[in-house]
Amino acid sequence: SQTIHQWPATLVQPVGSPLSLECTVEGTSNPNLYWYRQAAGRGLQLLFYSVGIGQISSEVPQNLSASRPQDRQFILSSKKLLLSDSGFYLCAWSVLTEAFFGQGTRLTVV
Amino acid sequence: GENVEQHPSTLSVQEGDSAVIKCTYSDSASNYFPWYKQELGKGPQLIIDIRSNVGEKKDQRIAVTLNKTAKHFSLHITETQPEDSAVYFCAVNYGGSQGNLIFGKGTKLSVKP
């Protein structure tokens, strides 16, 4: 069966520090991979999606970047965090249409 | 682009009552309509979905109805229980079968015992 791992579960980082969130998927090949952000009391905002290794599409301009160094690995990064980067970050995978989410990372920038 | 509107944003019901959440969308090419349940501090979980070739789908106490002409679909939860309390998201695939999911803003459902 397919599983998705996302870590860390919680993270507190100072303003201006770098960020690296990692997501890996098991049990499937060539999935579409996604990073979403969920601000408090708001819906899910698509940040990046990838249809293959090295292929990244950005949905919104921002302080973040994404990379897909391997088929089942998706990384969300920032060189310098802003206060506004705080939120709940979710990785997801899909093949065709159904999407399945990781457990999320609660990022607090202080 | 695709626009997904979800209503209501909050919903409070008594245990045993029914709950209905509605979403509207704009892209006529959309053909996949899932619903997700998100419990506090966790990622969303797919609970039911419907494709455009059917009008209704049921799974025990939950059902989804789709009106493609009017571009809206609804989640129905019957005989609600306290464990149904969560945030529910509708989603629509944008750009056809291989498209990305666009989510509604969510509905916080509270079931009072």
Written description of the protein model:
The complex is a heterodimer of chains A (110) and B (113). By secondary structure, chain A is mainly β. The model of chain A has no long low-confidence stretch (mean pLDDT 91). In chain A, strands 2, 4, 5, 6, 9, 10 and 11 form a seven-stranded mixed β-sheet that branches. A four-stranded antiparallel β-sheet of chain A has the order 1-3-8-7, with no helix packed on it. Chain B is an all-beta fold and 113 residues long. In chain B, a hairpin with a 6-residue loop joins strand 4 and strand 5. Chain B starts with a strand and ends with a strand. Classes of the chains: A mainly beta (110), B mainly beta (113). The interface between A and B is medium-sized, with 22 and 23 residues.
Could you name the key traits of this structure?
A: 110 residues; 7-stranded mixed sheet; 4-stranded antiparallel sheet; B: 113 residues; 6-stranded mixed sheet; 5-stranded antiparallel sheet; globular
Brief synopsis:
The complex is a heterodimer of chains A (110) and B (113). With 110 residues, chain A is mainly β. Chain A has strands at 3-7, 10-13, 19-26, 32-38, 44-52, 55-58, 65-70, 73-78, 87-94, 99-101, 105-109.
> What's the Cα radius of gyration of chain A?
13 Å
Strand content of chain A: over 45%
The description of the largest β-sheet of chain B is:
6 strands, mixed
Low-confidence segments of chain A, given as residue ranges, are none
Low-confidence stretches of chain B: none
Outline of chain A: globular
User: What general outline of chain B do the C-alpha atoms trace?
Assistant: globular
Percent in helix of chain A: under 10%
